[in-house]
Each structure stands twice: as structure tokens, then as C-alpha cells.
Amino acid sequence: MTGPHPSVAATRTAVRDALDGLDIGTRVWVACSGGPDSLALAAATAFAARKDGLVPGAIIVDHGLFEGSAEVARRAAAQVKTLGIHDVYIERVEVGRIGGPESAARDARYAALEGRIAEEGGHHPQLLTGHTMDDQAEQVLLALARGSGARALAGIPVRRGNIVRPFLGLRRADTVAACEALGLEPWNDPTNHMDDGPKRSAVRTKVMPQLVDVLGPGVVSGLARSAALLQADADELDRQTRSAMTREVDRADCDALAALPEAIRRRMIKIVAEEAGAGPLGVVHVGAIDQLVMNYRGQGAVHLPGGYEARRVRGRLVVTHPTSERGTL
């Protein structure tokens, strides 16, 4: 008797490993777009749920960004149900403009996903997404192009809160092969092949193939390994920053901040500024605030997202909003 196709077996193993240790009856939700990654994830999750006593569900977000999106969502829901997942929801969202099209779509998607999960309830429900090693490599390249710090270069975390990404150790070719072996018909996002599509799509269809051609097929796994190493480094630096913040350190005093190592100081600046209400802060914002601490020559306020400002006043950093006095560092 032959076993499942190797790619099907790989997806099942990845999901079971990611969900190992969950209590029987835990609800596990698949974020499904109808593409090969999320359909393969739905199939593997349905299998794992039967084996391990979990309760599977799927949430399909219709962003309404192209003609026929509602039909794509319905087809995805129908295929997911054939896999044995019966709790399937289609969430239609309105995508705003804040942060650009990709960021706005992501914000709307996760708001819909988390909203449905909260409404359905359950004990520590988990949300699974189909990000693969290829997505990780693309994320690292985008972060490099933006000149981002270690946290951004660490890429997509395997787990963050209740969000789990079992496929970060698998290639996109594995999910495509799994769908073919299971007789599933995934939807292919047309924006991946548009000349004026999202930057991520251009990286996927143009940049990455060129890198593979020049540097060899190992470039994808190499970028993913770099992200994993940076993830551990970034986690440790975040831990040290939180530890420093709990000590008797006046985090508004510029002299006290200047005495800290740069990696800790910049993280502390970002955390406390965002806690005051500004943000999310990028590398440029943090660097400009850091100049108030380390290289002050009477420069004016640093303008921050959300209408906030950071300024140096009598040797202390303050973050304020024009309509509010709250937010002092």
C-alpha cells in the first residue's frame, strides 16, 4: 500500500508539527484565499484535525479588489468543504487607503479574520496562514530594499500570538504539487502577473527568478535561514530592551538614554514613542529621534505618524500631540 504524495505528506507533517500540544477540541482556523498555499494548508489542517481531535474551520476574505472576487471566494469555500471542513465563512471587506494598497488590504484582512474568530469563540483558537519559504525570502528582500532593521529582516515569524505559519519550511512548489495530487484547483492571483502590480508580485515574478538564475536555487533557503537567525537575535535584543525598561532608568532623560547601547536605545525609543500614541514608527523616525539624544544641535521637533511630535526639552525627550498633552516619554 502506497502512502500519500511526498508533497501532501510534507504539508501534513508541517501542520501536525505546528499544532502539536494543542488541547483536544481546540479550534484551528485556516485563512484561505483559494490559492495553492492556502488550499494545501486547508487540506493538511483537515487531515491533522481528524488525527488529533481538533476542530477545523476556514475563513475566506473577499477584498473586492477585482471583478469576480466574490465567485473566487465561493469556489474556494466549496473546495474547502470537500476536504471535510464544514465551518467555512466568507468575509467581505472594504479596503482603505492608509499605508498603501498592500498594507490596507492586509489590515482589512486580519481585522476580518480576528473578528470572525472572536465571534465564534473557543479556547485559545489558532489562526493558520499559508506563508511559505518563498514568501519569507521575498519578505527579506523587500526589507533589505527598504533599509529596515533586524526585526524587519527577520521576516515572517513562525508564530505570533494566535497566528501560526506551518509552511515556512516548505517551498511554494510543494503546495502546488500537493494541490495537484489532491485534485484541488487553486486560484492564481492575477496581480502576480501585472506590470503595474504590487511590489511583492514584481519581486516574486521578476527579481527572485533572476537571483535564482545568478546565485542558484539555494538563494531562497539561504534568505530564509538568514531570517531565522535574525529572528533569534531580534528576540534577544527585544528582551534586553524590556529588561532595561524595568530597571531604574529614566527613559525620558537624554543622558540616561545616551548611555545605553545603540541597539537597546533605539528599540526603547521606538517602544516608548509608540506607547505614547505615535506610530507605527519606521527606521527613519527612530533615527531622527535618536539624533535628538545623541547629536542635539537645537533642531526642532521630529514629526511622527498620527500627528505626534518628538522634541527635546531641557535635556528630556517628550512626545506630544498638538491636541493633547499626553504622551510624554
- Low-confidence segments: none
- Secondary-structure-derived class: alpha/beta
CATH class of the largest domain: Alpha Beta
Major beta sheet, strand line-up:
3-2-1-4-6-5
Task: Give the helix tally.
Answer: 12
CATH homologous superfamily of the largest domain - what is it? HUPs
Topology order in helix (H) and strand (E) letters? HEHEHEHEHHEEHHHHHHEEE
**Beta-strand residue fraction:** 5-15%
Taking all Cα atoms into account, the compactness measure Rg is 22 Å
Describe this structure in words.
- This protein has 329 residues and is α/β, with parallel strands linked by helices.
- The chain folds into two domains: 163 residues, Rossmann fold; 73 residues, Uridine Diphospho-n-acetylenolpyruvylglucosamine Reductase, domain 3.
- Helices cover 52% and strands 12% of the residues.
- A six-stranded mixed sheet has the order 3-2-1-4-6-5, with helices on both faces. It has a three-stranded antiparallel sheet with strand order 7-8-9.
- The radius of gyration is 22 Å and the shape is elongated.
- The termini are far apart.
- The mean pLDDT is 90.
